Amino acid sequence: MKDKFLSTEHYIAYNQLENDYKNFITHYDDYSNSASGSENYNKQKFICIKYLESAIEQKRILQIDIESDSKKLFNLKYN
Q1: Per-residue pLDDT, 3
Q2: CA gap 20, 32 in Å, rounded
Q3: d(CA 43, CA 28)
Q4: Cβ neighbours for 36, distance < 8 A, ≥ 6 positions apart
Q5: Whole-angstrom Cα distance, residue 40 to residue 62?
Q6: pTM: predicted TM-score of the whole model, two decimal places
Q7: Contacts of 38 (CB under 8 A, 6+ apart)
Q8: Nearest to 79, CA basis, from 58, 40, 39, 48
Q9: Taking the chain (79 residues) in consecutive chunks of 10 residues, what is each chunk's mean pLDDT?
Q10: pLDDT value, residue 5
């Protein structure tokens, strides 16, 4: 599988991106099901932001468009 990537860095970034999205989905579900303003709501929101920031960084390494993730990150941070 590693043969289809440009470098080891790309291979690692791809795997990290995949894991970031899996974790983001899990925590986003908890975030969206928590009562607004609760301790769990704020904790899950913080975790989601961290996973999205990591996903954006991995996409930069892989030279993938980050616009949709950037919009989601902005909405999580400021709404």
Answers
A1: 60
A2: 18
A3: 11
A4: none
A5: 33
A6: 0.85
A7: none
A8: 48
A9: 71 94 96 94 96 96 93 92
A10: 64
